[in-house]
């Protein structure tokens, strides 16, 4: 695990007040390994390595800063410098056009972005101009429906420019217009000509380039082409829920002198995150990021919160993990992604701890979840708050009340114990240094 070896190398610096060239070399080597494996362009990695080395060795660390903290800070700052802050997206009326190759995730991202803006209180509309791909209209319409946003498309019209123009008129009531475009298997003149014509007709406030996280090094060339033809103001990286870390997109950002706006983390309209450098850096380096976790937990909880006003997700990470927490965790899981994925983002959890747990420790299937919920509905407040108070006679009563079996109730309690144990381990790990730094 790359992240844990970087963590290990950094931890070796603990207690040292001065850093040697060897120390820095070791850290930089680990970072290079992580970044190259994440598909970051080689020359970008080399530039970054040089600036980290130079700064870490030549600049005087502030007094009272340990060697480890200093290196972490330099690494982080230089990486933010490379990756950039999030693309600015004012919450005001605007037109955004999406460009990118076939299959990169444009149509999905259009609906996701519309959903995201609608959650910010704006009224978005998706305009579908892809006349090449059979089914693009239906796919886009369906996703706009899922996102509960306005939609315009015309399956009988063959000219994308006409659709775009009519779409702008038809969606005059919307605040945010998101114009989806066709892609091609590769970059070709036809694609470029078409998108230039749409760009002229629509005159978008922003053009976003949509890049598949698995794109790798060829993202650079693609970005150059689109930058030359329509100008790129920001990048959306999709499919970050897979194994690819999206490092290739950094070359695109560099090439277009732009920044990253959104991250796609799944196939449904809610699987979108606003780009945020600290989380992305943590992911690239394979180190956890509590900040992102907290945000994700919070967002998912916003919707479940209404059911239970006094429930606070922070408690889950701080205090005792109750059955109530578990119930919220389960009902939020659809929105947050599987718990093991969430766990990956917690400092110390990504680095192998998950591997030490039984395979099914975090794996609660939908059916099991539903059954667990039924069982929990038969529990008292006290039992939910203090699962340890549940003895044999309560188990019997709960099984009877929920129409399940004592075995099932025991299973639920086991599951809770395992999740609770995992969270406790995390609480014990602490990664205050990293977290403090990330917040700056
Ligand atoms: P387009 O050709 O650029 O419009 O790409 P689509 O939006 O049609 O997406 C192509 C495929 O990638 C579809 O099957 C999408 O469901 C899938 N996809 C898009 N974004 C994501 C993502 O963030 N995660 C995952 N897992 N799949 C995605
Ligand atoms: Mg499409």
Provide keyphrases for this structure.
440 residues; Four Helix Bundle (Hemerythrin (Met), subunit A); Rossmann fold; 8 strands; 9% strand; binds guanosine-5'-diphosphate; binds magnesium ion; ribonucleoprotein; GTP-binding
CATH architecture of the largest domain: 3-Layer(aba) Sandwich
Give the strand line-up of the largest sheet. Answer: 3-2-4-1-5-6-7-8
- Count of alpha and pi helical runs: 21
Instruction: Please indicate the count of domains.
Output: 3
**Secondary-structure element string:** HHHHEHEHEHEHEHEHEEHHHHHHHHHHH
Instruction: Give the end-to-end Cα distance, rounded to a whole number of Å.
Output: 27 Å
* Low-pLDDT residue spans: 289-298, 345-362, 429-440
CATH C-level name of the largest domain: Alpha Beta
Q: Globular, elongated, flat, extended or rod-shaped: what is the shape? A: flat
Biggest sheet statistics: 8 strands, mixed
Bound molecules: guanosine-5'-diphosphate, magnesium ion
CATH superfamily of the largest domain: P-loop containing nucleotide triphosphate hydrolases
Enzyme class: hydrolase
Binding site for GTP: 100-107, 180-184, 238-241
EC number: 3.6.5.4
Protein name: Signal recognition particle 54 kDa protein
Précis, in short:
Belongs to the GTP-binding SRP family. SRP54 subfamily. This protein has 440 residues and is an alpha/beta fold. The protein has 21 helices and eight strands.
């Amino acid at each position: 695990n790359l992240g844990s070896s970087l963590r290990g190398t950094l931890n070796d610096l603990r207690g040292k007040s001065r850093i040697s060239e060897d120390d820095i070399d070791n850290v930089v080597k680990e970072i290079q390994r992580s970044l190259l494996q994440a598909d970051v362009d080689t020359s970008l990695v080399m530039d970054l390595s040089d600036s980290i080395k130079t700064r870490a060795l030549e600049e005087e660390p502030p007094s009272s800063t340990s060697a480890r903290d200093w290196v972490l800070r330099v690494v982080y700052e230089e990486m933010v410098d490379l990756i950039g802050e999030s693309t600015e997206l004012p919450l005001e009326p605007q037109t955004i056009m999406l460009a990118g190759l076939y299959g990169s995730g444009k149509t999905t991202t259009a609906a996701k972005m519309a959903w995201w803006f609608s959650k910010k209180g704006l009224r978005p509309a998706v305009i579908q101009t892809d006349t090449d791909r059979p089914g693009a209209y239906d796919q886009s319409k369906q996703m706009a429906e899922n996102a509960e946003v306005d939609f315009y498309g015309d399956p009988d019209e063959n000219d994308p420019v006409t659709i775009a123009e009519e779409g702008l008129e038809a969606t005059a009531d919307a605040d945010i217009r998101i114009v989806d475009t066709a892609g091609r298997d590769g970059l070709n003149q036809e694609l470029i000509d078409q998108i230039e014509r749409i760009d002229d007709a629509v005159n978008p406030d922003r053009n976003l380039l949509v890049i598949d996280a698995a794109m790798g090094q060829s993202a650079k060339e693609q970005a150059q082409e689109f930058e030359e033809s329509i100008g790129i103001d920001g990048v959306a990286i999709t499919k970050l829920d897979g194994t690819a870390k999206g490092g290739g997109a950094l070359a695109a950002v560099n090439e277009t002198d732009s920044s990253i706006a959104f991250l796609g983390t799944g196939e449904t309209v809610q699987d979108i995150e606003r780009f945020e450098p600290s989380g992305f850096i943590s992911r690239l380096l394979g180190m956890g990021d509590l900040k992102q976790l907290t945000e994700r937990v919070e967002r998912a909880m916003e919707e479940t919160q209404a059911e239970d006003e006094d429930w606070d997700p922070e408690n889950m990470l701080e205090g005792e993990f109750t059955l109530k927490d578990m119930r919220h965790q389960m009902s939020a899981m659809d929105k947050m992604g599987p718990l093991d994925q969430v766990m990956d983002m917690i400092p110390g959890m990504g680095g192998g701890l998950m591997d030490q747990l039984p395979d099914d420790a975090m794996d609660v299937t939908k059916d099991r979840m539903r059954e667990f919920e039924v069982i929990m509905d038969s529990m008292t407040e006290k039992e939910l708050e203090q699962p340890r108070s549940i003895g044999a006679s309560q188990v019997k009563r709960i099984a009877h009340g929920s129409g399940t079996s004592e075995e099932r109730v025991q299973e639920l309690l086991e599951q809770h114990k395992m999740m609770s144990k995992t969270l406790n381990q995390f609480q014990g790990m602490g990664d205050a240094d990293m977290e403090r730094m990330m917040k700056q």
